[in-house]
Amino acid sequence: MRNPQLYRLVLGGCLGSFIIVIFYFQINLKSAEQGTRWAGWHWKSGRSPLQMLYHGDQPELSIPQMTHQARRELLEEVCRSYTRKRRVLVQEDLKHLIVDDQHGLLYCYVPKVACTNWKRVLMVLTGGGRYSDPLQIPANEAHVPSNLRTLSEYSPGEINQRLRSYLKFVFVREPFERLVSAYRNKFTRSYNTAFHKRYGTKIVRRHRADPRPEALERGDDVSFEEFVRYLADPRTQQEEPLNEHWERVHSLCHPCLIHYDVVGKYETLEQDSRYVLQLAGVKHEVRFPASAQSARTSEDMAARFFRNIGPLYQRKLYSLYRMDFLLFNYSAPAYLKFRLH
């Protein structure tokens, strides 16, 4: 079975940064085997996770294989249709790609899409026996940068080698449900004082008429409507990149520049996580933690938050997240008050 892969050619560097040019071509079994030999790693099954995905032993595709093939093909089709000019990757683009050298995995983490649990799982896999149960790892420890390596920390040659021969995966979520989840977590929890100070005070100052002095100082009572106006304000992105918790997935993980072999979805989190662990040959060593369904931000909950957002700002917000809707095959929510066409 053939599938397009991305190969990269390092052109050169300047002041510690480098440029990678990207081009597509068809990869076959021989080139996949060469990629593994070049890397010098040996897998328990004799095959890398990448080879397990594209060159499995089954003569016919399984349902998970067909599902993920369809997701890859749609992603590539949208990228071809909407990416007019392909830019180059730089080292900054790789900071969200976590590396597992022991199992040949590259994971692009997206906040508010089970990334805490995926980081926990990768800490088990790369911890050399230090951890056995992902849930034993405190959430704050999972987010300590030094506990996991990112692709940006490697040399250009090492980066290219891993992009060629490792299984690359990402997990995505319905964009507005992810956005509401980020708002609930960062602006309605009293313990998130750093976010209140960093973002809340700015939002109150710019998007609230006659704010009280204590609100300007603390920024701990931002409404969802104010948050939406902040996101839709052109000054927000002119001044600095969006925070990773509400940044678009395509801006965090660059799926039109990096070919992801598995695109998992929050809506099918447990099945897709099992599939990745199966490909990595570790499904008996670690289990992906089950999450509490009651705590999730659902479509109904997102609809309640959007109830007080007028059509103008709904349209602006949809335009901001439009590529994530298209790339990952999410329909515009039925609760929106405007027509797309």
TrEMBL record:
<dbReference type="GO" id="GO:0000139">
    <property type="term" value="C:Golgi membrane"/>
</dbReference>
<keyword id="KW-1133">Transmembrane helix</keyword>
<keyword id="KW-0812">Transmembrane</keyword>
<protein>
    <recommendedName>
        <fullName>Carbohydrate sulfotransferase</fullName>
        <ecNumber>2.8.2.-</ecNumber>
    </recommendedName>
</protein>
<dbReference type="InterPro" id="IPR018011">
    <property type="entry name" value="Carb_sulfotrans_8-10"/>
</dbReference>
<dbReference type="GO" id="GO:0030166">
    <property type="term" value="P:proteoglycan biosynthetic process"/>
</dbReference>
<keyword id="KW-0808">Transferase</keyword>
<comment type="similarity">
    <text>Belongs to the sulfotransferase 2 family.</text>
</comment>
<keyword id="KW-0333">Golgi apparatus</keyword>
<keyword id="KW-0325">Glycoprotein</keyword>
<keyword id="KW-0119">Carbohydrate metabolism</keyword>
<keyword id="KW-0735">Signal-anchor</keyword>
<keyword id="KW-0472">Membrane</keyword>
<feature type="transmembrane region" description="Helical">
    <location>
        <begin position="6"/>
        <end position="27"/>
    </location>
</feature>
<dbReference type="Pfam" id="PF03567">
    <property type="entry name" value="Sulfotransfer_2"/>
</dbReference>
<dbReference type="GO" id="GO:0016051">
    <property type="term" value="P:carbohydrate biosynthetic process"/>
</dbReference>
<dbReference type="GO" id="GO:0008146">
    <property type="term" value="F:sulfotransferase activity"/>
</dbReference>
<dbReference type="InterPro" id="IPR005331">
    <property type="entry name" value="Sulfotransferase"/>
</dbReference>
